[in-house]
Design a protein that fits this description.
alpha+beta; five-stranded antiparallel β-sheet; single chain; 16 strands; seven-stranded mixed β-sheet; tt1808, chain A; 6 helices; 216 residues
Length: 216
């Protein structure tokens, strides 16, 4: 997720979801919606953009002709249980996409996979409140967090009422995204990020634990 900053659009009142979406239609920069508060999204680093692009290209090639489709950066996702609208870095939906139609604007409701690339200003939210909200989406099967300042990909995969957590810290490892029948090589994720070449490779961790679903 790109860096964000909270902005006050109308100090005396919060905006409605419809007002937010109408603003997004013509806004020069995107904002997320957090229960009536607009949170402006700032520009991303070159490393962030490189990771998103390379992951999107790899997934797009694998999904060609399959019943899943991917979107990068501009696909807005609605989380009704939290009254929030987010812009994940990458979204994949399998089957028929379902959209909220509000004010003539479409927002995705049923993502299967979500990827967020971490930054210093967004990591706490991506690991905390945002992750808790994402878990309320029954369609979501996989949540991926990608560090941009070190080789580290963290994958949460739904297993009934729990989530299986796996880390990847070696550029020789292959990430299995079972829900969308795709694989990603860690070396491909960091192909154009200097830290991948500078960081000493370590033995594959492959650590798996079960985390209870935050929202049931």
């Amino acid at each position: 997720m790109v860096a964000m900053k909270q902005t006050s659009i109308e100090p005396l009142r919060r905006v409605t979801a419809r007002e937010y979406l109408e603003r997004e239609r013509s806004a020069a920069t995107k904002s997320e919606y957090h229960r009536g508060v607009l949170v402006a999204m700032a520009g991303a680093s070159p490393e962030h953009n490189a990771i998103v692009f390379d992951m999107a290209v790899s997934l797009g090639l694998q999904l060609r002709g399959e019943p899943c489709q991917g979107f990068a950066s501009d696909m807005r996702v609605r989380v009704p249980a939290c009254d929030k609208y987010y812009y994940p870095d990458i979204v994949v939906v399998c089957g028929e996409p379902r959209y909220q139609h509000l004010g003539g604007i479409e927002t995705l409701l049923n993502p299967t996979l979500i990827v967020e690339v971490l930054s210093e200003s967004t990591e706490a939210a991506d690991r905390g409140d945002k992750w808790i909200c994402y878990q309320t989406l029954h369609s979501l099967q996989t949540y991926v967090l990608v560090s941009q300042d070190r080789v580290l990909v963290e994958v949460y995969q739904r297993a009934e009422r729990n989530w299986i957590y796996t880390t990847y810290e070696d550029t020789n490892q292959v990430i299995a995204l079972e829900a969308i029948l795709c694989e990603l090589r860690v070396s491909e994720v960091y192909a154009r990020v200097p830290i991948a070449a500078a960081q000493h490779e370590v033995e594959p961790s492959g650590v798996e634990t079960e985390l209870e679903e935050a929202t049931k």
